[in-house]
Amino acid sequence: MTRHLDKGIILYQQKNYPGAERELKLCVAEEPENPYARALLAGCYLLTARAEEALDEVELAIGMDPSQPFAHYMRSMIELHRGNLVEAMASSQEAIRQDPDDADFHALLSEIYFYKERFAEALEAAENALRLDPELVEAVNARAQVLVRLGRAEEAEQSLASALEREPANFLTHVNLGWVKLRQGSIKEAFEHFKEGLRLEPNSEWAREGVVEALKSRNPLYFPVLKVSLWLSGLDARLRFLVILLFFFFPDYSAPLVLLFLPVMFSDQLFNSMLRLDSYGRIVLTDEQIRSSNVFLGVIAGLLALAIFACYKTFVLHS
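^ thats the sequence. predicted structure below, dont judge the formating
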């Protein structure tokens, strides 16, 4: 390895991505056929919000040496960031096939399974990563977020607390611990963890969503709705599909199911609208959530106007 690659690796590990990028570019200028340097450079591009450049660079690395597992791992990270779960999984599995003893590869595969809502496989992949490296914070978080979705929050809390002691500035650990606390009803603690996670990683949608849910959960009417929503999200996608089928094949159960899920379906619009009255809440709501709130408020205003008009007509007819 050249000294530029050595320095680039150190800077990358220190999360100094602009510095790592400079060194890796110097390395690539000296060794244009170095696939590892190009794959690591792709990581710098990805982590400085240049996903398309990252994909171009990692494709060059794989073209130079298809047997470089780190390049496939990096390609998986890029495709996951772009929302291409099928491509991300294929690259992740190829990286593991080439090097089955790398804990990071298994932790990433767990995250992909998590986003595909295949929670059993996600848990297995995370535990494989922890068998290889029990101290890997990414693997601890991967396992914890699956356990939270499966309703095993207390089990997740212990490992997350330990991980936070080892790496107190890890935004993902704060966010996952926030979701644990929220499930347990510790709304104030959850909010503090979400807020810290968002401070550490301002672009994290997972942290922003947690802040919004914690703020809404301060309303005692919303928290039971959130519990139902979290229960639904913890179901396997195939099981949720079976629940939907109940509406069609078991009409006797449709009415209670509608009464159960109707508040969940419209709770976001209602409580997001209420959150707009909160100074911090207005900041963390996305443009899409605000637009959805505007439509919801418009519909409510229209229905209210119709109700007032109907009451007025009835009063006139009977007077």
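The two ends are 93 Å apart (CA to CA).
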